[in-house]
Specification:
Length: 368
Amino acid sequence: MHLENLYLVNFKNYELANIDFSKYINALVGENGSGKTNLLDAIHFLSISKSAFNSVDNQCIRHNESFYSIIGRFSIREKQSTVSNSLTHGKRKKISIDKNPIEKAADLIGMFPVVLIAPNDHALITEGGETRRKFFDVMISQFNKSYLLNLIDYNHALKQRNKLLKQFAEHGNIDHDLLEPYDKILISLGKDISEIRCAFCDVFLPKIKKHYSYLSNAKESIDLIYQSHFQKDDFQESYKASFQKDLVLQRTNTGIHRDDYVFKMDGFQIKKFGSQGQQKSFLIALKLAQFDIVREEKGFKPILLMDDIFDKLDDFRIQKLTEMIEHHEFGQVFITDARPERSSHFLEKLNIEWRAITIDNGKLAAGE
Ligand SMILES: Nc1ncnc2c1ncn2[C@@H]1O[C@H](COP(=O)(O)OP(=O)(O)OP(=O)(O)O)[C@@H](O)[C@H]1O
Ligand SMILES: [Mg+2]
């Protein structure tokens, strides 16, 4: 799969841009703040329906403008599809594929998959479980629609149950009949979701291990441990047992919304004991494993977006990654770099078509 053309109006610092891309490597170069990451984010919007960096859609509308519009033309096995994502202040975001409106983002996810490697990936190691759950959920959802739909239903039931717990606290009465339908959903969907997460980790871990040892030449042994309340045989008991706590805290304390994924190296948590270099290698291995899994599940290569990758890596790892590019392990790749001479240095050595796209303050350089 590749993105042939991108058309932006009033998206972040782009007033108007119309860009044709190489099927292979696109190096987005320009000074700090010129709009390189914004362009990757526009592609992320087309794929996942939202920003990878900013959870407030309105802030992606260019300052002092009333709307943004992102239009991308993808090609999958010679078939073209045009995806549009636009937002006007005060209105709902509109998404369409070939001019057919998409009602729910869930209907888009997985159709035009991307894998993003970005500096803020570090949050996957340092932040709380929610960040990791989101990463795994988006990844699994790209190829497992029923997982995504179950997750949406689960989150809806969770919200309703928490609302009831708050009402009970406010009114000083408890109505078990009102809670029961939500308990049923949280237990049955929770079990399904937990089983899929667990099975996914079994498939995913060997892929991370493979990339980690290739990228870093390291001997450390990597581990990924899925932690879930559902792994205990007496889950229903512990769900019921936490009811008093739920009442006091006015939220549901047991279930897959509290799951976590622990990353380990030689038996110790990477978060606490991994060196900076080990953490960087681990994160790239994680994203390359994501690339492999999406490719296997979809039957075509997702687009790879690499934001400031050269800043993150030492020469050995850059060499390893460029070898992967050269061996056609990836399909279409977008790489941002604030230092054009550095990316040209690595890319010129490759026997593969690449294109430099120079960006200056939200505008493409003449001739682009
Ligand atoms: N809604 C918006 N309207 C106008 N400009 C915006 C908006 N949102 C972000 N920007 C501008 O976009 C620019 C940042 O763009 P971006 O993050 O793509 O830069 P970059 O080229 O990746 O830089 P770096 O090399 O530092 O990573 C900033 O100047 C910021 O002010
Ligand atoms: Mg950037």
